[in-house]
Amino acid sequence: MKKNSITTLNQFISDQQNMFPFVQGSLSRIFRDLQLGAKMINRDVRQAGLIDILGDFGNTNVQGEEQKKLDVISNEVFIKLLEMSGDCVCILSEESEDVHWCEGAENAKYILAMDPLDGSSNIDVNASIGSIFSIYKRRSPNQAVTMEDILQPGNCQVAAGYIIYGTATMFVYTTGSGVNAFTLDDSIQEFCLSHPDIQIPKNGKIFSVNEGNYADFPESYKNYIDYCKTTGESKKTYSARYIGSLIADFHRNLLKGGIYLYPPTLSAPNGKLRLLYECNPMAFLIEQAGGKATNGSIRIMDIQPTELHQRTPVVIGSENMVDEFLTYNK
Ligand code: P6P
């Protein structure tokens, strides 16, 4: 990137596409639509309190979670925009129990999994929230899409990313050649490259876990959390940070170093976070940034999904911190 130059997300995507002369531009169009959706949701998130779209929608989603109005709006925005491009054959969303089949796109190449607005419990209290996406290529281009096309392991992702609606709105993504982050310049409504080729520090001093569930964690997780809270000659003092919004906790750790854990408990043996549209995209990003993501036993991206909305325990962040955790979780 030339010094003092502005690279917009559109320019960056176009440059990336030119590096692959045979691509028809479908993936670029999907990113165009994701970007437009991000700008629309950013507008709604920033105005939520003024135009009364805070609060509950009165329904619960497939997860049994109270649907917030912004959840529903975000889901509709992304689905409508991505349907317009005709480049997604179907969309799996946290907000919809079944796969959404995109009209007239039966022959499209890509499958999108998304959490349209993650961290919804933070919407009304003005804490950072985000949208998460994961993109796969269908495995069966010449026949109808099957569940095998949708239930692909994270190591088959062609792209993944998130938009964080925080003090700034940022679009962070990877297509397998590193992680780049773009900050929305409100004055020109363009995402501009602000964090090229992000690398997560190999070590960190931040651990993120909901210690309210500590009593229900497996002993190995308790032992690791107790270790994080010790101080002494051979160990830096760690800080506990937990925003309760995956994107916000993940983004901070990505830039500063740290570890995020959502452990299994007796009542939730697979933890809370969903594999296809939360843990897999985060795992792709963290590995591209030099970090690690595990379910406690194997690499998140090697898990073979069996259900659309399946959950998985997750430990993700700085490589040496995740390795440190794994020594406790033998
Ligand atoms: P808990 C938000 O609902 C979410 O899915 C993630 O964004 C967040 O990290 C996690 O759940 C918080 O869950 O059980 O700690 O409140």
The assigned structural class equals: alpha+beta
Question: Could you state the order of secondary-structure elements as H and E?
Answer: HHEEHEEEEHEEEEEHEHEHEEH
Strand residue percentage: 15-25%
Tally of individual domains? 2
Number of E-state strands: 15
Assigned CATH superfamily of the largest domain: Fructose-1,6-Bisphosphatase, subunit A, domain 1
Percent of residues in helices? 25-40%
What composes the largest sheet?
Answer: 8 strands, mixed
CATH topology of the largest domain: Fructose-1,6-Bisphosphatase, Chain A, domain 1
Give the strand order of the largest sheet, numbering strands 1, 2, ... along the chain. 4-3-5-6-7-8-9-10
* Small-molecule binders: 6-O-phosphono-alpha-D-fructofuranose
**Alpha-carbon Rg, integer:** 19 Å
End-to-end distance:
43 Å
Judging from the principal axes of the Cα atoms, what is the shape? globular
- In round numbers, the mean pLDDT is 93
